[in-house]
């Protein structure tokens, strides 16, 4: 199994990492970079807890060999606020982060990082999604606590906040 340096940009910072090329992006983020906000729920692509952005597209880090994303720009939940702040300097948090807290969309919090990354990507693609569109986008994200209702309400609120800010 080959190993070597993999260069990535993670949350805006260039990284050169020594890793097995077959190591997953999830392993590298959590075990080498200490970015444990990205959760390991199943490691088999079934829960959505490991969702990050690869070149701004939401992807499952547990199914992504790090060698396949060399040279890419990775954004994790730890970098979501800073990503938002680049275009909205008055706010340190993405509106979905604020709305999740406001609407009680976080209970144990295990699914939350993946939900936030999926929701923020949805609002970038579709600024005012319908409830159906939200549910479709969250279809691969499991939450054992909330019943999803507060999560959907939070995302709708975040959409309204974003639209007001445009
Ligand atoms: S940890 Fe990746 S989908 Fe569950
Ligand atoms: S808040 Fe506990 S799994 Fe979603």
From TrEMBL:
The keyword Zinc-finger does not apply. It holds the Pfam family Fer2_2. Keywords: 2Fe-2S, Iron, Iron-sulfur, Metal-binding, Oxidoreductase. The keyword DNA-binding does not apply. Residues 4-80 form the 2Fe-2S ferredoxin-type domain. GO terms for molecular function: 2 iron, 2 sulfur cluster binding; metal ion binding; oxidoreductase activity. This is 2Fe-2S ferredoxin-type domain-containing protein.
